[in-house]
Design a protein that fits this description.
By secondary structure, the chain is mainly α. Helix content is 59%, strand content 1%. Strands 1-2 form a two-stranded antiparallel ribbon. Helix 1 runs parallel beside helix 4, helix 1 runs antiparallel to helix 11 and helix 12 packs parallel to helix 15. It is globular and about 60 Å long.
C-alpha cells in the first residue's frame, strides 16, 4: 500500500496554486509596467533581481532539505514573493539590497516554517521590514519619476544597480516621508503637502516605490482578483476602512496636523497592502469575522504608525503584527460547529435544527 494519508480539513478547488499565483501576477502586471515607465531600466533590473534571487533561494532550500525542486518551484509562489518585494522597494535600490531582502523573505519567513502554506508571516513584508530596519538610508532613497524626459539606458541602469549611487538630480522624497519631516520642523500641513500630492496621483507621477506608482492600476488589479474570486472584499474594504476612518476623524478635528484620508489611501503601500499583501491566504484568517478584525486592525495600525511612529510608512509593520494575531483570530472567531452551542456543548436535536434555520 502506497496510499498517503493527509490530515484534515480537506478542501477541493478548481484552481491550482500555480493558477492562483499566475492570476495575481497578471493583476500586478499593469501597475508594474507603469513603474517601469516612470522609473526606467533601474526599476526593471531591480524587479528581475528580486524574482531571480527568490527563485534561487527557494531552489537551494529545497535541494538542501532533500525535496524535489522543480515541482515546488512550478507553483510560482517564490516568483510572486520576489515580485511583491520588488514593488515595495525603492525603484533604484542596489542589487545587493534586493538579494538580501529575497533571502530574508524566502529562507527566514517561508522555508524555515516549512514552505508554502506553513509560514506565519507574509514573506515579502518580512524581507522589506528587515531591510528597512537594517538599511534605513538605502530604503528611503527615493527618486523622482523624471525618466519620461531624462531617460537612462540599460548600461546606466546596471551601473546604478551595482553601485547603489542614485544621482542627486533624481532624488526626491515620498509624500509620507516629506510630510513627516516638515511637520517635525513645525511647518503646517497645507504648506508641507503643497505640490507633493499632484492631481494625477491616481496615475502615478510622484516619488515612491514601484507599488505606489499608480493607485488606479493597483485598484484595477485588485478588482480583477475580486471578479475572478481569487480574493474577497472583506479584507480590502476592512483595511481601507481601518486606515481612512481614523484619518478622516483626526483630519476633521485638526486639519493642519493630520493627513486627509485620500492622501493616506493614495500614498505608500496602502492600495498594494489592501489588495495584494493583507489578502494572502496563509497569513490571514479564514473565518469571515476574523478577516474583518484582521483587516481593520491592519489599517488602523498603519495609520497609527504613519502618524506617530518613527517610520513614515507602516503597512509592512501593521500586516506583520496582524499576521502574528491570525492564529488567535482563527481560534476565537471561527464559526460555530453544527449542533454545538457557543460553549462547545452538544445541542438537543430539535434546538440544533432550529439553530440552522
Amino acid at each position: 500500500m502506497n496510499d498517503v494519508v493527509h490530515a484534515s480539513p480537506h478542501a477541493l478547488a478548481r484552481r491550482t496554486s500555480s493558477q492562483i499565483m499566475g492570476l495575481v501576477m497578471l493583476a500586478l502586471l499593469p501597475a508594474t509596467l507603469a513603474g517601469f515607465w516612470h522609473f526606467g531600466w533601474p526599476a526593471f533590473c531591480l524587479w528581475l533581481v528580486c524574482i531571480v534571487a527568490c527563485v534561487l533561494c527557494e531552489a537551494i532550500c529545497l535541494q538542501w532539505s532533500g525535496r524535489r525542486v522543480l515541482p515546488v518551484l512550478s507553483d510560482g509562489s517564490a516568483a510572486l514573493t520576489g515580485w511583491l518585494l520588488a514593488l515595495s522597494l525603492p525603484p533604484w535600490a542596489p542589487w545587493w539590497l534586493a538579494v538580501l531582502g529575497s533571502a530574508f523573505a524566502i529562507v527566514l519567513a517561508k522555508q524555515v516554517f516549512g514552505g508554502l502554506g506553513c509560514n506565519v508571516f507574509n514573506p515579502a513584508m518580512v524581507g522589506r521590514t528587515i531591510l528597512l530596519v537594517s538599511f534605513p538610508v538605502q530604503m528611503t532613497q527615493w527618486v523622482s519619476p523624471l525618466l519620461l524626459s531624462q531617460g537612462t539606458d540599460l548600461a546606466q541602469a546596471i551601473s546604478i544597480g551595482l553601485s547603489g549611487a542614485v544621482p542627486d538630480a533624481y532624488t526626491s522624497a515620498s509624500l509620507l516621508g516629506h510630510v513627516k519631516t516638515e511637520l517635525g520642523r513645525g511647518i503646517g500641513l497645507a504648506d508641507a503637502m503643497q505640490g507633493v500630492l499632484p492631481a494625477g496621483a491616481w496615475l502615478g507621477g510622484r516619488a515612491g516605490s514601484l507599488g505606489e506608482t499608480s493607485s488606479l492600476l493597483i485598484l484595477l488589479g485588485g478588482g480583477f482578483l475580486v471578479l475572478k474570486r481569487v480574493i474577497g472584499l472583506r479584507i480590502p474594504l476592512g483595511f481601507m476602512a481601518g486606515l481612512c476612518l481614523p484619518a478622516a476623524i483626526a483630519h476633521a478635528l485638526a486639519p493642519d496636523a493630520f493627513l486627509p484620508p485620500l492622501a493616506h489611501l493614495l500614498s505608500g503601500g496602502a492600495m498594494l497592502g489592501a489588495f495584494f499583501i493583507a489578502t494572502d491566504y496563509v497569513t490571514s484568517p479564514s473565518a469571515p469575522f476574523g478577516q474583518w478584525i484582521f483587516a481593520v486592525g491592519a489599517g488602523l495600525l498603519t495609520w497609527l504608525i504613519r502618524t506617530w511612529g518613527g517610520y513614515p510608512e507602516g503597512v509592512g509593520f501593521a500586516v506583520l503584527l496582524m499576521n502574528a494575531a491570525t492564529p488567535l483570530l482563527d481560534m476565537w472567531a471561527r464559526p460555530r460547529i453544527f449542533g454545538r452551542s457557543l460553549g462547545g456543548k452538544a445541542l438537543p436535536a430539535r434546538r440544533a435544527r432550529e439553530s440552522v434555520r
